[in-house]
Amino acid sequence: MIIVMKAGADSQDKEAVLKRIMELGYTPHVISGTTRDVIGAVGDERGKLVLQSLESLHGVESVVPILQPYKLASKEVKPTRDIVKISENVEIGGDKVIVMAGPCSVESEEQIIETAVAVKAAGAHILRGGAFKPRTSPYSFQGLEEEGLKLLAKAREITGLPVVTEVINIETADLVADYSDILQIGARNSQNFALLKKVGQLRKPVLLKRGMAMTIQELLMSAEYILAEGNQSVILCERGIRTFETATRNTLDLSAVPVLQSKTHLPVVVDPSHGTGNHHYVAPMSCAAVACGADGLIIEVHPDPEHATSDGPQSLKPSTFAKMMEQLKKIAEVSGRTV
Amino acid sequence: MIIVMKAGADSQDKEAVLKRIMELGYTPHVISGTTRDVIGAVGDERGKLVLQSLESLHGVESVVPILQPYKLASKEVKPTRDIVKISENVEIGGDKVIVMAGPCSVESEEQIIETAVAVKAAGAHILRGGAFKPRTSPYSFQGLEEEGLKLLAKAREITGLPVVTEVINIETADLVADYSDILQIGARNSQNFALLKKVGQLRKPVLLKRGMAMTIQELLMSAEYILAEGNQSVILCERGIRTFETATRNTLDLSAVPVLQSKTHLPVVVDPSHGTGNHHYVAPMSCAAVACGADGLIIEVHPDPEHATSDGPQSLKPSTFAKMMEQLKKIAEVSGRTV
Amino acid sequence: MIIVMKAGADSQDKEAVLKRIMELGYTPHVISGTTRDVIGAVGDERGKLVLQSLESLHGVESVVPILQPYKLASKEVKPTRDIVKISENVEIGGDKVIVMAGPCSVESEEQIIETAVAVKAAGAHILRGGAFKPRTSPYSFQGLEEEGLKLLAKAREITGLPVVTEVINIETADLVADYSDILQIGARNSQNFALLKKVGQLRKPVLLKRGMAMTIQELLMSAEYILAEGNQSVILCERGIRTFETATRNTLDLSAVPVLQSKTHLPVVVDPSHGTGNHHYVAPMSCAAVACGADGLIIEVHPDPEHATSDGPQSLKPSTFAKMMEQLKKIAEVSGRTV
Amino acid sequence: MIIVMKAGADSQDKEAVLKRIMELGYTPHVISGTTRDVIGAVGDERGKLVLQSLESLHGVESVVPILQPYKLASKEVKPTRDIVKISENVEIGGDKVIVMAGPCSVESEEQIIETAVAVKAAGAHILRGGAFKPRTSPYSFQGLEEEGLKLLAKAREITGLPVVTEVINIETADLVADYSDILQIGARNSQNFALLKKVGQLRKPVLLKRGMAMTIQELLMSAEYILAEGNQSVILCERGIRTFETATRNTLDLSAVPVLQSKTHLPVVVDPSHGTGNHHYVAPMSCAAVACGADGLIIEVHPDPEHATSDGPQSLKPSTFAKMMEQLKKIAEVSGRTV
Question: Theoretical Cys-Cys bridge with A212: which of A172, B197, B213, B280, CB 3.0 to 4.6 Å?
Answer without folding.
Answer: B213
